[in-house]
Structure formats: structure tokens, C-alpha cells
Amino acid sequence: MFANRQTCRIDEQRGIPENFRDLTECSILASSRDPFDAMERAFLELGKEHLQLNGPLHPDWELVREYPISPELLMMSRAWKRPYGSTYFVAAKGAPEAVLSVCTVSAEESQAIMAVAATMATDGLRVIGVAKVSVSELPSQRELSLQFVGLIGLSDPLRPGVPAAVQECYRAGVRVVMITGDYPVTAQNIARQAGLRHTSGVITGPELTTLSNRELQERVEQTDIFARVVPQQKLRIVAALKANGEVVAMTGDGVNDAPALKAADIGIAMGGRGTDVAREAASVVLLDDDFSSIVRGIRLGRRIYDNLKKATSYILAVHVPIAGAALIPVLMGWPLMLMPLHVLFLELVVDPSCSVTFEMEPEEPGVMNRPPRRLNYRLFAMRRVAMSCLQGLGVLVTILAIYGFALREGELDARALGFGALILGNLALIFGIRASNRGLCATVRSPNRSAWFITAGAIAALATILGFPTLRDVFKFSRLHGSDVVVLIVATLFLMLWLEALKRIPALRHE
């Protein structure tokens, strides 16, 4: 704290010196009685601890007018009517340069005060100027001839996980931009602590008002810190970033942040300290108000999207052999390979695979070490569709070859062998598509118990059907021999090699 040309560092072990009591009282009177803002709550807590306040300061005073903050004057004031006398007491707080601009101080004294403010800001403190005045009439805020009371520096340390989260964003190709109402030097200090890349350049709110939209678009490409910005200016920054082709996620907590939250591609409201208006305008609400939670959300979103791609690829691939096994034997004049009961059994494997196996798939290694996908990226891109069709085609050709050769041994033998190859080919597709961006061995070792449950369940059910004469009769199968089992195992290994080989073709690789 700075007042009466003296500096005081608040110590919880002692009270506030008398010279700083007026500064503390004015900071409280310039704030709401029931503050929502974290800074105003800090002023009130200061008064409760060191002024022995058990309730509102001056509870008999009546608030008659509030002067809001504006882009032209970064300060706010509250006018109080005292129960005695005919004058109003006005308490103001805001950016030191804004407060000094309406105070009756000399140029030399103003420079000295701003030097103190710069020193406090260099230490990473959020510096607030406080002033007061008693008036008989209430003019506009700009016309108030305030008496400067002092400066208050507030420390808002970063959460321990923020620097690591910022670096993880950079590895993931996500740019981090700081937009704050703080002093530029304070913003740079905090940005360096957080690990932001471009901390030398700062665009201030007053400077932003002088830039055209085109100029702002060019400046935001290389500037990561915006200081002394009022909430209304966030909308221009968001618009400039979007105009440059960026996908913008913006955080905010105040009522005035709502337009920018709405305009951003992803508006993120603070659930702890955010207003209802901000939460309604946002797409996402953070329950813990922690930047690290946003990064965890990006990681989770990438995992979900990867698994969605795998699930859709599996759906496309698995229906190629199912449809082909149902139609091609008819066109070839062969006996039916699939009957309604067989298709129903296949769906008992396909449906859980889509809804459970790929949903439970853990994130791939390096999921946060790759750039975001392009804006024009399509889930059903041609390369992905082509890859899925070739994967399914490999299964179809394999089972048709087995079925065609087995027909020489009889219809029931061929159907049993072809159906077994279709079930095992389906399982091969599950593991092959799970391993679309990594090796098969690594996929087998990855923890996904649902995949193993479905695999074990499908093989056990197939073995049960083939092992019991009654079930074989229902499914129109014959008993498999040892050589048939070898054929199925070799066919499954061939399909795994086929799926691995397809991944090596550059033209079929997809994001």
C-alpha cells in the first residue's frame, strides 16, 4: 500500500498503520457492499481483519449513484449520502493513471505516484489507485475533482499448474493470449511467470481504440498480451482473431464479457466467480475456475474425437463383409452363407464394439503433441472412407475365399467355416482400427478391458455354437475339424497383416 508518500506492506501479524486507514476505508466504499469481484472481496477482507469490521462499513450511509468503468476512463466511483450534512462522499478506484487524471495533483506529484505504481507493477502486483471527494452536487465522473488517497497493490499468484498447462498448450498447437485490465508491466510479469512466448509486446486498451479492424488483425498475429483492456474491447480482439482464421476459445466471468463469450467459437465462463449472464452466454462453464481444466478438456476432446473416428471407421469397414457375405453368394449361385439368425449374432458383436470398445479406448500417445485439425477437416473424408472400405474388403475377400473352397466339403461345412472367419475377421477389424495410429503390439498392451471382454465373449459364443449339436442345427452348421481351426487362425493372422500393411500406404494415411 502507498499513501501519504509512505509505503506499507500488509502483515497479518499487525494492524494497518493510521496513515493507511483512510486508504483502506475508501477502497471498501468504492466497492460493492456485497462484492462479487475477487478484488473487491479482498478489500472487504482487509477491512474485516484490520479495521475490525463485523458488517458493512458505515451501514447508515446510502448509496445514491454509481459511476461505471468505461473505455475512456478506466475507473469507477460510488457516491454515498451520509445521514448528517448535505454533501455526498464519493470514493473512486481504478487504473492509477485514470484516477490521477481527475485528481487535483501537480504534474510532479503525478509522476512520482506513477513511478511508485510502476515499481509495484514490476513486482507482479495488480495496482489500483484510490481517491475521494466530498461534493454538494454530483457531476459526471470526469468532472469530479478528486483528492488522491493512495495506491493498493494486490497479489494474484498463478496456480501451480498454470505454467505446465501453458507449455502443454504450445505443444498441442494451441496459442495462449492474455487479455487483462491490469497495468501493462504487471501483465508482462504474470505472462513471463505463466510461460507465454511473446511477452515483449503489449497492446493496451487506449492503443486498441486507435487501430482499425485491419490493423488489429495484423497486430494480434504477433501479440499475446493485451493490457488495460475493458470488457467491451474483448469483442474486437475475438473478432480480429476469428478474421485471421483462428478458432477462438475465450474465458470471462463478468456481465460485460457476455458479447465476447457469445462471439467466440467456444465461450468459457467461470463457474465459481462468473455471473449468471456470462454462464448463459458461454458454451462451457468451468466449475473450478482453473486454466488447467481447459487444457484437460482439450486433451479429453481429442481423445473423444479420435475414438469417434475409429468407431465410424469400424462401422464402415465391418458392414462391407457383412453385406458382401449376404449378397455375393446369391449372385454367384452359391448356397446362402448368412441367414437372419447369423446377422443377429453379428450385431451382438458389432453394437457393443461401437458403443463400448471404442468409447473406452484410452488416449493415444502424443495426443497433445500434434497440431489441431484443420477447419475444413471432415469426419468422413475420402481417405478415411477409402481406408475403411479396403479394410472391410480384405475381410470380405478372405471369408469368400474360405467359403468358396469349403463348399466342396458341403454347404454346412462351408457356412460354419465362413461364419467363423467372419466373426474372427470382425475381431481383427476391432484391433486393427484401434491400432490405426500406432503399432498392433502397443494396442494389445493398452488398457481396454471392454475390447478383451467382447473378444472373449465372441470366441466363447462361437465355440459354444459349434460345440453343441443342437445349436449347430439351429445355425445350420456342421462340426469343425482341426484343420478348419488352423485355417481360421491363419486367416485371422493374414487379416492382421493386411490391416497393418494398409497403414503403411501414404495415400491412405489420414489425420
Q: What can you tell me about this protein's structure?
A:
The chain has 19 helices and 13 strands. With 511 residues, the chain is α/β, with parallel strands linked by helices. A 7-stranded antiparallel β-sheet has the order 2-1-7-6-5-4-3. Helix 4 runs parallel beside helix 6.
Sum this structure up briefly.
With 511 residues, the protein is of the alpha/beta class. It has helices at residues 21-29, 38-50, 96-101, 107-122, 162-171, 184-194, 205-210, 213-220, 231-243, 258-263, 276-281, 291-332, 340-357, 382-406, 411-434, 440-445, 449-467, 469-475, 482-503, and strands at 2-3, 6-7, 62-67, 75-81, 88-94, 126-135, 147-154, 178-179, 203-204, 225-227, 249-252, 266-270, 284-286.
Sequence-ordered SSE layout with sheet pairings:
Blueprint: E1 2-3, E2 6-7, H1 21-29, H2 38-50, E3 62-67, E4 75-81, E5 88-94, H3 96-101, H4 107-122, E6 126-135, E7 147-154, H5 162-171, E8 178-179, H6 184-194, E9 203-204, H7 205-210, H8 213-220, E10 225-227, H9 231-243, E11 249-252, H10 258-263, E12 266-270, H11 276-281, E13 284-286, H12 291-332, H13 340-357, H14 382-406, H15 411-434, H16 440-445, H17 449-467, H18 469-475, H19 482-503
Parallel strand pairs: 8-10, 9-10, 11-12, 12-13
Antiparallel strand pairs: 1-2, 1-7, 3-4, 4-5, 5-6, 6-7
What is the number of strand segments? 13
- Helical proportion? 40-55%
Spatial strand sequence of the major β-sheet? 2-1-7-6-5-4-3
CATH architecture group name of the largest domain: Up-down Bundle
Structural class: alpha/beta
CATH H-tier superfamily of the largest domain: Calcium-transporting ATPase, transmembrane domain
Distance between the termini: 55 Å
Main beta sheet strand tally, sense and closure: 7 strands, antiparallel
